[in-house]
Amino acid sequence: MELLSAAAIRRCIVADPGKLIFGADYDQIELRVIAALAKCKSMIQAAKDGVSLHLLAANRLFGIDHIPDQYKLPKNINFTYAFAGGAGVMAERYEISYAQGKELIDDYERQFPELKKFKREQQDRVLRSALSPVEYRTYKMLVGQLFNFRTDTPAGRKARESVQREINRLCHGKLGWITTKFGRRLPVDALKAYTAINYEVQATARDIMGHGLLRVFKDPELEPTLLLPIHDELIGQGPKRKALHLATRYGEVMTTEFEGVPITAT
């Protein structure tokens, strides 16, 4: 079944006579959530200053005089990284070589070291909860062995594949857990421990959105206008003369703070 995009859903909604459809959505909510969870100082300060986190990444990676294409690539890296993608995903999605993808990811992690640290900590948390102490030590030993073999020779690749099979057997069928700041307990496949960051960011953003929805629903002026949520956006309907005012009020009521980071909506 093909899922409809947010834009496609919006096109399905037609305003009643004399009314307009309006909406307010969160500003880069997933990136602000990961900045808060990782305690990434530069990203948090940018959010407080109202600076786009995509612009921040572009400035860090390519300098303040970057060209439009150089802005687009860090924007893609931000989302790819937040959603657990690595160099391979970068290469496939954005039609660049694996080497280029790895270089970009490595440079990104040098610019935002707190994100790299957070990602490793979350993966480790999953593995420690999924494996016994003996299994965890074995896992770390096997991962260490991977670095003993070259990737540019048939013998090296064959040896790495053998070690990787042992890692897969060790982790097969094992589930670890992470708990979000809102108390949501999430299961994570030990074979895909790297997805922990994606699950936590998405779940946390969803809970922030849920609380924003409840605040709008409890507002006497806004409640009668509320139609539905779409991803990180709330859609409403109101008289033409009040539509702009209502949309502004949605943004004000939805705006909040998470772990000291402003989560704004407009």
Q: Can you walk through the features of this model?
A:
The chain is an alpha+beta fold. It is built from twelve helices and seven strands. It has helices at 6-11, 29-38, 41-48, 53-62, 68-82, 87-94, 98-111, 113-130, 133-146, 154-171, 196-218, 243-254, and strands spanning 19-25, 175-179, 185-189, 226-230, 233-239, 256-258, 261-263. The protein has a three-stranded antiparallel beta sheet with strand order 1-5-4. The longest helix has 23 residues, at 196-218. The model has no long low-confidence stretch (mean pLDDT 91).
Quickly list its features.
266 residues, alpha+beta, three-stranded antiparallel sheet, two-stranded antiparallel ribbon, 12 helices, 7 strands, elongated
How big a fraction of the residues is strand?
A: 5-15%
Helix and strand composition category:
alpha+beta
Mean pLDDT: 91
Query: What share of residues is helical?
Result: 55-70%
Name the poorly predicted regions.
none
Instruction: Note the run of SSEs as H and E.
Output: HEHHHHHHHHHEEHEEHEE
Beta-strand segment tally:
7
Structural Rg:
22 Å
